[in-house]
Design a protein that fits this description.
418 residues, 5-stranded mixed β-sheet, 38% strand, Immunoglobulin-like
């Protein structure tokens, strides 16, 4: 395993907003010779934070004291310590944020004041302004607030309403982008090329070398809506690895993102804690594993919160063929995954991920793409479909309407065999 020095931290693209009330929809495209599409509209309650009107009034009523309260806040795992800060009303709050965790974090107050991202082992000191009433703070990186990275700033010496109560009241305001309709998704799928579902044939190679570069980029959902995705090599799902039992894979992960990322191969047989640890922006890591069992295996980013990294696009498949696998005319890989839409151009909604209520469910990253561009086979041809459920929440029951499978391999054994 090799690591390269960390580059200076860059701002995270599109901080995820706090969740808002919006309609959500699940869309699944099931494809082979026969295509099935299902869309379900579900209501998803949510909440939002912002600077309250009451704070403006409080600021006018409370005079700045000219005094400063200095506090050191340490980060341990996914928590701030202390989680409560007390200071006199009107004092300026200066915080030294010390990151003892294993990935970068920041601190944002409901007032809008913030401290920049801090890499592991580093610290930053900054002013969060004159505090006139009690307020809340949190880490704004996607999913970190939902993991418990919150704190409270409490003022003394005045009637102090809490900023968070006003933010909760504002939760009824709906400023999130609505989830697109099935018709909008189908219309957009008609205009863009489908991701290839074809599994590339095996070669004679037994040693496989890959470089996976982490990127953070915009991906269009429709012509009017995009989402920030985190990817391996610019695609979601990432590249499909293909080999035989006994093959060895050498994967070099390069983090060109703005936060910590990692990779966890289910086809390997070691704990990911050390060998597949989170690496910071600008770092790289090489991981090697030998495939000792056949099947289709998931790989994904395992950086906490893992569900957010998967929902933002960091997943893919490893296909390991058993000995004596029969020949077919076509071999496809279909990976089911959910999408939880935040604001336009922003990452997945972490609060929606926690509810398990997805906006869209896709095969190979886009809804309806194989409805718009079917997988075409001829009568009498034999096909094999490798199916993987990447989640992060929903299960998968796969079938092809109008036919029956004559051979099924599931979780390590044949349940049907021709």
């Amino acid at each position: 395993m090799t690591k390269q020095p960390t580059s200076d931290p860059r701002p995270i693209p599109g901080h995820g907003s706090d969740p808002l009330t919006r309609s959500a929809m699940a869309v699944v495209g099931v494809v082979a010779v026969v295509l099935v599409t299902v869309a379900v509209l579900i209501a998803n309650p949510a909440a939002v934070n912002g600077t309250s009107a009451s704070q403006a009034g409080a600021s006018a009523a409370v005079q700045a004291t000219g005094e400063t309260t200095d506090v050191t806040v340490t980060i341990e795992g996914m928590a701030f310590n202390p989680s409560t800060i007390e200071l006199p009303a009107g004092n300026e709050l200066v915080v030294t944020l010390v990151n003892n965790g294993d990935q970068r974090h920041d601190l944002v107050l409901a007032t809008g004041a913030s401290l920049e991202q801090v890499a592991p082992g580093e610290q930053v000191t900054g002013s969060l302004g004159v505090i006139t009433e009690s307020t809340d703070g949190w880490c704004s990186l996607t999913g970190h607030r939902q993991m418990g990275m919150v704190l409270t700033v409490t003022v003394t010496g005045s009637a102090s309403s809490t900023e968070s109560s006003d933010a909760d009241a504002d939760a009824d305001a709906d400023t999130d982008a609505d989830a697109p309709s099935a018709a909008e998704l189908q219309e957009y799928a008609d205009t863009v090329a489908a991701s290839s579902a074809e599994l590339e044939p095996l070669t004679d190679e037994t040693e496989h070398y890959y470089t996976f570069t982490v990127t953070e980029q915009l991906d269009a959902v429709t012509g009017e809506l995009s989402r920030m995705v985190w990817t391996y090599n610019g695609t979601s799902p990432g590249p499909t690895l293909h080999g035989r039992i006994g093959d060895t894979f050498h994967i070099t992960l390069v983090n060109d993102g703005t936060m910590g990322h990692s990779i966890d191969f289910h086809a390997g047989e070691v704990s990911p804690d050390d060998t597949m640890t989170t690496i910071e922006p600008g770092e790289s890591l090489t991981y090697t594993f030998t495939a000792n069992r056949s099947g289709i295996w998931m790989y994904h980013c395992s950086t906490v919160p893992m569900s957010s990294h998967i929902a933002n696009g960091m997943y893919g498949a490893v296909v390991i063929e058993p000995e004596g696998l029969s020949d077919v005319d076509h071999s496809y890989v279909l990976i089911q995954a959910e999408q939880y839409l935040g604001d336009d151009g922003e990452p997945a909604d972490a609060a929606a991920i926690a509810t398990g209520i997805a906006d869209i469910v896709t095969f190979n990253g886009r809804a309806f793409q194989y409805d718009a561009h079917p997988l075409e086979v001829s009568t009498g041809e034999r096909i094999r479909i490798w199916v993987l459920d990447a989640g992060p929440n929903d299960g998968l029951s796969f079938h092809v309407v109008g036919t029956q499978f004559d051979t099924v391999w599931k979780e390590g054994s044949y349940s049907v065999y021709r």
